[in-house]
Amino acid sequence: MDKHLQECLEHIAKPIERAVMDGRVSGAPFVDFTNQASMVFSGVETIVELLQIDTLREGYEEEEHRRLSARQKGALLELIRSVSRTMTFRVSDIADWADQRMKEKGMAQ
After folding, report:
1. pTM: predicted TM-score of the whole model, two decimal places
2. pLDDT tens per residue, the chain (109 residues)?
3. In whole angstroms, what separates CA 29 from the centre of its chain?
4. Distance between CA 19 and CA 48 in Å, rounded?
5. For a Cys-Cys bond, which of 3, 37, 81, 107 suits 102, CB 3.0-4.6 Å?
6. DSSP per residue over 34-67, as a string?
7. What is the three-class DSSP state of 106?
8. Could you give the 3-state DSSP secondary structure of residue 109?
9. Backbone φ and ψ of 12, nearest 5°
């Protein structure tokens, strides 16, 4: 995996991860995030399916009226980008929250 991509995917530091796994820091925010991420992935999957169906309609004259416009495709892709940014910020907020809890409990990171 690309190093930059890997760094983007690892937003929760290992000490925080261990503290949550050991029960020293509440895991509730992480569960909430996981549930939200599941819904986001379901939405992304639906968008991908819509774009795949649109691609399959390409070249069939009788299906042209049902094709997505460039504007509609752009809007779907922007929706994915927007939600992705929101989830990235959410991870950062959770990491900051967990870091603060660890400091309050005297656990060094």
Report:
1. 0.70
2. 556 555 555 577 888 888 888 888 898 998 999 899 999 999 999 999 999 999 999 888 888 889 999 999 999 999 999 998 898 888 888 988 998 988 988 876 5
3. 15
4. 36
5. 107
6. HHHHHHHHHHHHHHHHHHHHHHHHTT-GGGGGGS
7. coil
8. coil
9. -105, 120
